[in-house]
Amino acid sequence: MTVEVKYASPSQRRHYRVTTPINIDMEGATYSTENWSISGFRLAGYDGKVTINQVIPLRVRIPFQGFDISFITNAKIVRLQDDVIAGEFQGLNEREHEVLKSFITGIVGGEMAEVGGIIRRLDVPVTPAMLQPYKDVTQEESAREAFNRKMISVIYIFAGIALTAFLVLILYVNIFQLRTTTGVVFSPTETLNAPVTTGDVTNISVKENQYVKAGTALMDFNDPKLLHDTEASQLLVNQATANRLHAEEQLASQTKQLAIGAHLSPKSSANTVLQSMQKQLGVQQAGLSRNADLLKSGVISHSIYDLRNLTYQQAAQNVQRQVEDFNNLISAVQATKDLETAAINQLATLKAQRNLLTLKAPADGRVVKLFVSDHSGVQYGKPAVLFERSDTKQVRVYLTQADSMSVAVGDVTKIYLPDYNSHVHMHVAEIDHITATIDPRTGVYTGWDNRALDLSVILILQADTKQDADKLLYVSSGKPAFAVVNIHPVERLINRLLVND
User: Fold this and answer.
1) pTM of the predicted structure, to 2 decimals
2) Per-residue pLDDT tens digits for 440-483
3) What's the burial of 31, exposed, middle or buried (CB within 10 Å: 0-12/13-18/19+)?
4) CB burial class (10 A; 0-12, 13-18, 19+) of residue 314?
5) In sequence order, what E strands does 309-452 have?
6) Residue 484 belongs to what H/E stretch?
7) DSSP letter at 438?
């Protein structure tokens, strides 16, 4: 007799699933799950248009004790039957994975349960039962019981007061405060480019994720063309200096000879000798004038006049020629000095350019990424370092339109940094309604109504004091930040209630 054996199909459930519903926002609508796990979800009532294996963006919202703990991720559609779809989460990071795991563990372990569509923690008191029958109550025991009832009444009264205070605190937190977990530490980054035309990296002095002070040398470059120009300029300076020294020697020698001929000190300056020569030229010209006056008055004859006039003219011409030669020598010395100065200035400019081959930190900040390595070739304008400035660090909080209606510039905000267990006092410096509402492909505004469920408003927060700003200096961009915005003005409270309604 043949026995037929049938096997059940293998289960596709890799993780334990819970039926406590959570919310999935996708394609402009919100759906409640039938069950979910760390790896995915299943929901009914879907009326959208998706296909099997399609990856779609969505927001997971877990309603927990009056708050929505949410994150944005992608899901791959793995099942589609009528209005029932199932999706598999794609690319969950460590934080998102831990959030799902914590809630599943709490629900399975009985620490959490759904109460009115909200997941809440349960406090289960354990009351011991009596194992023996009651005895007859005596007068003493009756008095004791009466005292106990009074004490219990007092306890209940204090408990009622404490509960009332707690409820008032809850009302204050929910009405006069805006709490969100969608904040993130943000700091603008800038790309530092290679300053050389063509060359290579000779030394890298920093590592990625290293914090540096302003002016710290990050890396050095070598530019062969600039090095060649600098060496050529140095040769020009040396030649110009030699020419100047030669011209000065000639001027000094000529000055000494003329000084001795004019009966001056051999150490006389060029200006003193030139003045003496110009004075001699004046004497000869005065002699010509006086000789003409003597001829006119008849004191001397024409032959004597001609003889003296020839002598004076020859002497004047000799002095004039010496003055011109001496001036030319002085001008030659000045010309060599000018050439030397120009060569020195050009060399200084090239050396300054060589100093620029050291790439330095523009401010206090963090080296996010190095785009080059030691001895790698670079060209002018090629990215070398991605740098994050610490002096412009801020916190950005992403809100929906409804929540943004209750916030204004200047509102006091308290930030909690979970990764550092630290609090920072900040304020709202700017509210950006524009960036998230522009289509990056067309540059056209998409409008508000179509983005009602999106976190399309950005709060830009700045630290209140230098001490608070210093707490953010060494916090890396991208770290999560929980924000509590205090809302006090009555008119903005009314706006918030009206928008939420």
Assistant:
1) 0.39
2) 565 555 554 444 446 778 888 888 888 888 888 778 788 899 98
3) buried
4) exposed
5) 358-360, 365-370, 377-379, 383-389, 394-399, 412-417, 422-432
6) strand 480-486
7) B
